[in-house]
Amino acid sequence: MVTGSERSLLVITASDIALSVIENIKANNYTGYTLAGVVLIDEERESGQGEAFSPNEKSIGEIPLVADRATAAEYICHEWIDEALLVPSEDADFPQKLLDELQETGVTIHLNLSKVSDEPGRKRFVEHIGGYTVLTTSINSASAQQLFLKRVMDIVGGIVGCIITGILFLFVAPAIYIRSPGPVFFVQERVGKNGKKFRIYKFRSMCLDAEERKVELMKDNKMQDSKMFKLEFDPRVIGNRILPDGTRKTGLGQFLRDTSLDEFPQFFNVLKGDMSLVGTRPPLVGEVSEYELHHRARLSIKPGITGLWQVSGRSEITDFEEVVQLDRKYISEWSLWLDLKILFKTVFVVLKRKGST
To answer: Is 213 helix (H, G, I), strand (E, B) or coil?
Structure first.
């Protein structure tokens, strides 16, 4: 979603006009973009043998040259650029293939209004960047008022959630420590909006060596690839064990997970602004490293405690591509009303799951 805060901007243009584009942006940067780098779409490495583009080989207008036409989309994914400005040269062919790749990543694209062809099904609007009138393409856009109301809802929900978390702590903390001595909270690095990393907080529901044991359990992963990890029965969860006769016994950790009580400390992340009440689930750093271009689109908004795929039968979904489709559906159809519907449905799903345990 397009916001009004300071964002990193990647300039994608041709060598014959690159300097003038950079100077134009610097002189008219009213929205306070941070210029992240320049991509020259009419220059590629002469080797042409799969050699990766070497960044910072030179600069244009003191802005580093970071990629070429072939590596632009990959650079955006690895460096997590917020937005891109595409200013093609009037004397060259329009880089449609590159534009398609950029749109697949989910990054917000500002396209100079020249040689623009109509393409239905995408959110587009006209605005100004520097001295350019551009056509901005985004999976979705939100007005300043909508974003303000969503943030207010997050703050109110975060405050209420933190109060409840404090009350739960009085009961959950001793129970966790008695059954598995160690930290009460589980802290882990996750990837948020546009690749920004943050530390997520949960009540610890797993044994202390859970991360080390994950490798040996990958063979039992319900998901069809390693871009997401989920087990039918997780032996790393506090109190979970398999008896000699094959019977599966669950304990405190599974109770915390089934009732979503372990998620409550994430309201602190919501209050900080790392997360939202509703969004896409924040992946692990290692999972993101395996993303393809279209997977990155699910990181174009703030992650949430709950989301569309969590209330769409998350226990039954084993195909990561289906998760991505639901996340993109949420992003493209986002509204405050949709957030409210998902929140109410989340309560229903949790209560239903609690009743079945």
So the answer is: helix
